[in-house]
Each structure stands twice: as C-alpha cells, then as structure tokens.
C-alpha cells in the first residue's frame, strides 16, 4: 500500500481490494447452512443460543412454581428441582450469554465495525459454530438420557457431582462435562478469529483508539475467555477422569451409600480453584461486551460523544487484567487458607474502581445529552441502574465477614442475577432493538417494544429485590422446599408466591418479544441504512442488510473516532467515521 | 495456582508492551483526519495466520500451565507416590528433538528455495513425530504392564492425562504438517504461502518440544527442587 499524501481538499482515495481473498458461497447450502460468512454465523449462533436460552427460561419457571407453591406440582420432585437449577445456571451463563455476546454480536459486529470484509479465518469460524451446536445438542440430550441431566449445581463441585446421591450421576454429569469440553474447543476457534480480526483486519485509518467501545469490550472479553476457559477445560477433563476411570484428582476417600468408595486422597478444593479461575473471569467475559455495547447505545441515543473515551478503554483493559486475580472471593467458605480471603477481598474491591469509572462516564455522557427514549436507550438505562444495584451488593459479598453469613442464601442469588443475569440481558435486548434494523432492514415494533421493556425492567426488580430480603432472613438457595423453620416467617412464603407470579409475567413478556422479532421480519417498517443516525461503520454499508463482503468494491477509510455526535458547526448532529474532515466541497464525496 | 498466574503475568507483559505501542494516550476526539502514519492502521505486518498461531499458543500455553498448576497442588497431598520413569521416554524426547530440528531444516530449505530439502525435512519431521507418539504409547503400555494403572495413584493419573493432552496437540499438528507437505510436494518453486505454512508448523513444533521438556522435568521429578524453591520464595 502506498502512502497517499493528504491535501485537505480531496478525500483519501479508497483502497482497492483484490476480490480473490474472499470466500464465495456457491450453493444454497454453503450460503445459508455451512456458511463461512461471519454475519450468517452470527445469526446461527444467536438463534441457537436463544433456543437453548428458552429452555433455561422454562426451567426457571418450573423452579419458581416449586418455590412459590411447594407441594402443588406433583411433576416436580426434589431431584428434578436440582436438575433444573443446574441446567438453568449452566445454560444461561455459558451457552446463552457467552455464546450470544461473543459468537453472536462478536461475529456480526467486529468485521462491520472495524471495516473488514469478513473474519480472517472464515473456515475456522464456521467450524466454531458447528462445534458449538454439537455442544448444545449434547447438553440438551441430557434431558433424555436415563437419570436425566446432572443436578450438581452449575458449579459441578466434586465430590457430590459424581456421587450416586446426585441426580444425573450416571449419564448427566458425563455428558455435561463432555459438552463443556466441546464448547471450549468451539469457542477457541471462534475466539482466535475475533482477536486476530481486530488485530489485523482493521481498515485504513482505524487505529485502536478509533474503535467503537463495543469492539473494545468484545475484544478484551475474548482475550480473557481464551485464557480463562482452559481452566474449565482442565477441571472438566480431570472430573471426567475421576468419574469414568476412577482417578482421584478431586475425590477424597469417603463413604458412599454405606460403602467405602474407590476414591481417596483427592482435593475438592483443587476443583474449586480451577473452576473459579475460569468462573470469575467469566463474569467479566459476559460483562465487558455489555459495557462496550451499552456505551455505544448511550452515546448514539443521547446524541453525545461518550464521556472519557480513553478512560473507558483503559478501564476495560484494567478490568480484564484484574478479573484474573479475584477468583477466590467465590471460595471464602470453602475452607481455604484464611489469609487468602483477605488478599482476594482487597483485589475484589480494587476492581470496583475501574468499574465505577465506567458507570460515572455513562452517567456523564447522559448529562445534558439530547436523550431519545428509544427502546435501545431504555434498555441501556435499565442496564445502568441494574448494574449499579447488583454491583453494590457485590461490595457486600466481596468482604469476607459479610460474605460468610450471607453465603448460600437467596441474597447471593439476587446479587448475581442482578449483576450478571438481568444487567447483561438488558444489554442483549437493547442491542437487538438497536441492530435488528441493520440485520433485517426493518424496525422492530415500538409499542410491543415499550411493553416488553417496562414489563421486563419492572418485573426484574419485583423478582430480585425481594430476594435480597429473603437472603437476609437466611433463606437458603438451592433448597427444594423450605419446610418449617423458625427463622422463616410466613411472609417469606407469600413473598415467594409473589416472585413466582411476577416471574411468569416477565416470561410472558419475552414471548411478546419473540413475536415482535418474527412479525417485524415481514411486517416491520423499513428502516433504511442508518435509522439511528449513528456514526460507526456498520451503519454506513452500501446495502442493508450488508451484502456478502460487507462493503461493495471498496473498503471504507476512517478519518475520525466513533463518537462525533452533535459536533458544533457540523451540518448534521452526527458525522460518520468514514467522512473526511473538511466541510463544504467534499462533504459526502467519500464513501 | 502460582504457575498459571506467572504465565498470565508473562502474557500481560507482552500485551502491555504491545498496547504501549498503540498510542493509547491519543485523544481521538481531537484528531479527525488521516493519522500520522496514514494509511497504516497500527496493525502488525505479520500475516494473520502467524498472529493467529501466536494467540493459539497463548491459549495452549495457558492450558498446559493450568495442568501444571493442578499437578503442583495435588502432588503435596499425602497419597502421592512418584512413578518410575520409563526409559523409553528418553528415546522419545530425542526423537521429538530430531523432529523439531528436521522441521527447522525444512524451514531453512524453503527460504533458500530448496524444495527437495524441504520435502526431506518435512517427511523426516513427520516420521519422527509419529515415532514419538508410538513411543509414548509404548511407555503407557510398559507402565500398565508394571502395574502403574491410571487410577491407582494421582501421580500415574497425571502422567497419563498430561502425556495424552500433549500427544493430542501433536496429532493436531501432524494434520497441519500433512497438509503442508502435500502443498510443498506439488510445487516446483517455493511460494510465500508455502514458506508461511512451513514456518507455522516449525513454530508449533518448537512450542510442543518446549512444553514436552517442561512436562518431562515435572513428571520425572527433576524439577521438584526447583518447584520447592519457588514455593518457598512465594510463601
């Protein structure tokens, strides 16, 4: 590529890109099924993740029915209840959120936002999806094997995960661990693509500091996931060997069903270290893409540049690094060396600093912004409030002395649902409303969207706020039924009924959302290429939905950062990233 | 978990160094217009596949380091009985070294446009790698015959598991090596693509050799003193 001098009058001539590099589908199968186009793979990922996510949603209803009305539903027994909580947790955290943020949004947005034609290794990218699908199918198959899915809890702690008292000990746990191993292999294939595409395939002028924060969030989260998932891989392989070959990596000697088991000498604590070495970064693997996306939603819909862009980038990187040294705050009650707890409480509180910087910057972006209360904006605002709430209870639980009495109560359930359940889901939903017009060329219905947002947002608070109170009362988590306990007043039971009713209502609102997705695909108002008048490159594609290769003949050239909203003196209240900097003669001349 | 923290520390230093080259202190809101080194994007001049391999090695490195972490935590428990080292492992190590050297030879040959030399190097490397895998299976068989079963002691279990994981990585590498050999076989002159393929295989082979040497040191217990010193320093 030659160095083109810039004379300030004409735009930079666009780069001529040879056609040969791009993979071209030749048949219906390779265009829509075994496609190597990142956009198709993104949609495949999103649909698969949503489908298995719906299963997890139904499981949560079943759990709530049991908790709200114990003894009423004869088709739910104690073992099934444990299986429901296990599968609900595992699906939501890994198969839904991780896959949706990185496989779904990552695949769709990275190439478009950095101005690339596709991911750098399209074939590996395609394999990534098919291995992910296989992992999902293996996971789903556990519902149909003898003994059903594992009921070990989503943390799969040994020794109970593979002992005969736990449901799904026969097949469920084996298939669960196999599915996790497959997921990690598939994710690694995809993750290599996301990272290398951001590193190598940015278009001309797209420096790192001109990347939209969405890309920063997904990029950092992918790097973290690539380094953290191996810990789950190691843990899963070792637990699988303990279960299948009778090794004793994690299994201490114990009496099982009245007989001394074949195991001996292993360390359950070792598994917890491995699990949480993955598990805590996982929280931020889900949160960082959400942070990035929400920054872009707020900036676009408040028509204002993001406040403190550099700080936002640094905070993302700092959170990514710090999240690797906080894992043992999940293990305060595990019996590990007590002084570890002190160390991990300190690092946990330190990570609140970059996180708080981000929250302040979102709020300061809103300050005196031209706020449009569109559906994506509503969800973004919902995210900020929810994340702050969930984050604050995190400060409680990060301290050893507060955590110990609250451990394994509903307070913990409320905390992590607010901070890594509801909050990222708010971003997912907001992002779907935001980018649906780009993916389909049509807007989602606004009235249905308003209904969906308000029911979901208010409902989530009605569900999870009371749970904090239940937790403070001492109501334990993972219990099939509470029975008679002196410290649990009758009001706790009626509160549980209330939560169940609200949970079912919120679930219904998601069905309305699904209807909206399907209906708008055919009947939605045509959106045009850039309905939100946004600056980032994905809105500047020549076609909507973007065609194969994204950009037609010429790649865009980037002249500015991603947040030129309401620039004083500019003709419009947004300036696309690929618009050259001079006004007048060449306005709009560049691609 | 200190081994993996150390490893991630190294990764963090590399990432930090790279980020420090990326003008992270730029004020992009003041810098509309072409950037100084236009049309550069700050992207590295390496081919994407090489960067991809680098990232993959970081992932594989993280995986092996985590196995090592688990190993060093588990070996302190009372039931640990160190296993004897099958002599065939020495032979295997030598064969793996030969495999790596042969690939290096092939890499140098492609750079000199010496196709025949490259084919000889690639085939020798592949043959040696297959011999290594066969030797590993032989070691398993010998241990099994001597009564060191996978489940009878955690030291045995770790040995079988870690050698299996290493062997699987090498098997994956053999697939890539096979494709590369086929690519070289049908050509008369070295192309940039061919050089890259051979180079990537070579890097991967050296990485797996390094991993094997570290694992061998750990599994045979020579590094126990070293691990103890590290542990004392850290605690």
Structural commentary:
The complex is a heterodimer of chains A (591) and B (235). Chain A is an all-alpha fold and 591 residues long. Chain A has one domain (31-246, 264-540): Cytochrome C Oxidase, Chain A, CATH 1.20.210. Chain A is 60% helix and 1% strand. Chain A contains 14 helices and two strands. A two-stranded antiparallel ribbon of chain A has the order 1-2. In chain A, strand 1 (255-256) and strand 2 (259-260) form a beta hairpin. The longest helix of chain A has 37 residues, at 78-114. Residues 1-20 and 584-591 of chain A have low confidence and may be disordered. Chain B is flat, with a radius of gyration of 22 Å. Chain B starts with a helix and ends with a helix. Chain B has a domain at 67-77 and 84-234: Up-down Bundle (Four Helix Bundle (Hemerythrin (Met), subunit A)), CATH 1.20.120. By secondary structure, chain B is mainly α. Chain B is 74% helix and 0% strand.
Architecture blueprint of SSEs:
The complex is a heterodimer of chains A (591) and B (235).
Chain A: H1 28-33, H2 38-68, H3 78-114, H4 122-141, H5 172-200, H6 213-244, E1 255-256, E2 259-260, H7 268-301, H8 309-322, H9 338-366, H10 375-398, H11 400-406, H12 410-440, H13 446-473, H14 490-523
Helix pairs in contact in A: 2-3, 2-4, 2-14, 3-5, 3-6, 3-7, 3-12, 4-5, 5-6, 6-7, 6-8, 7-9, 7-10, 7-12, 8-9, 9-10, 10-12, 10-13, 12-13, 13-14
Chain B: H1 2-20, H2 48-74, H3 88-111, H4 115-145, H5 154-185, H6 192-220, H7 224-234
Helix pairs in contact in B: 1-2, 2-5, 2-6, 3-4, 3-6, 4-5, 5-6
